[in-house]
Amino acid sequence: MKKLHAPASNLCIPYTMKTNTKNSEKLRTTWSVLKSLAFLFLLIPVIYVFCSLRFVDLFCFCTKQDFTTHHRSDIILSPPGLPRTDQGHDPHEPPEIKTNLSHVVFGIGASAKLWDHRKNYIKIWWRPNETRGFVWLDKHVKTEADEKKLLPPLKISNDTSKFTYKNLEGHGSAIRISRIVSETLRLGLEDVRWFVMGDDDTVFVPDNLVRVLKKYDHNHYYYIGSTSESHLQNIQFSYNMAYGGGGFAISYGLAKALEKMQDRCIQRYPGLYGSDDRIQACMAELGVPLTKEQGFHQFDVYGNIFGLLAAHPIAPLVSLHHLDVIEPIFPHMDRSRALQRLTLPMKLDSAGLMQQSICYDKTRRWTVSVSWGYAIQIFRGILTARELEIPARTFYNWYPKADYKGFAFNTRPLGKSPCQYPFVYYISKAATTTASCDDDAQNNQTIFSVYSLDKSPHPHCNWKMEDPSRIDKVEVYKKPNPYIWEKSPRRNCCRILPTQDNGTMVIDVGECSEDEIIEFR
Fold first, then answer.
1. Which domains can be identified in the chain, with CATH numbers?
2. Which keywords label this protein (predicted)?
3. Per-residue pLDDT, 50
4. Model's pTM, two decimal places?
């Protein structure tokens, strides 16, 4: 009898079941590992985002040692050349005080021969107990007791006879004046950031000077001023030179470097003419360029500077010079009285002094140019802003034989025809008014100023349009803004306001609104 055998497949059942069980366990293990890896890969970017946003500090593994491979949200990289704002500041120390007038020391170059006359110019702008500085003279002068409170202290310059001076057209006092900054530095005054040079016939606007200087770091090397109005003067001396009469500023850091080498430098330039070109020669050896600021005015011109002042650059007015050479800035009065008149608007809103704004009387087709704190011009017809921002030639070149091409800037004729000669209104009074109903009185002050028509005769005009001479006075309302120069430069706007008085024009002057432009339409 044959022995029955079970089918082979049946014989393998126990083994196959065991194998399948092992494979299932492996698959489950592999799947668990893959899920864990996937979860880990998903977790890493989540942790990174949390760490970046500083939501969970626990997961941030960034340290100062490995910040190149881990994100640090609390490290702020400054652009090259700018200080890091996250380092070196002690939170317990107060922030550095911004540059103010107490940080500026003036050095005024003067001579005993002209002192009795020119000291009156210094009295106009000098502020006792506020401004700091000295008048440096060639020899002792007599000063009245009551004048000592109105003027800077007087000092006698050191002897400069050891230095060689060979310029046949100049005077050896140039060497003495060129050393004023160094001599002032040697006095060892505390808390000085800027040394400002000027002449005894220079009038400064101190607040505007500070507005210019506070833009710059006094620890670095800065040589700040402006060039001459005469192209030929700049060619003869240098377009890289700050003219001393218009004034220039030297930072404390640069003054220290200058003092160390100036005497050696002066010896190398015996043939130079003046003090300011000797200073510039030393600046060249120190490798320091002129930082030009348009508000410093040398005024190397003759005659009436009305055209220059009525179209002042869009920059704070810092200085006026050559006051004995140019005509009084206001007509029918002497130079000192004319400058005294300017001090009133200077006190009320020095930042806005001489700033030009342009607008149109559309009904009468007049163009109006306001040089705030100084004068207003009314023109028949429509003149563009591009024309009016160019100074009118009311003055003459420093070199009599030079024509209008001899200026270092664009100029224009007074008018294209006698009918377009301006009617000029000079400031006669100004005062500050405050809105009494407002708690914030300081920020709601308005300056009310009046400008009276200059009665000088006008040429005959046959244009059939209304004559501006019917306007006897112009009233201007303006809100002062001492911080306007901390913004990007922009001309103010003016608006003609309605009035019932036929002999008066009323104007509002202020910052231009976003979409406001100077156009006639």
1. 101-298 (3.90.550.50), 335-510 (2.70.130.10)
2. Membrane, Transmembrane, Transmembrane helix
3. 52
4. 0.81
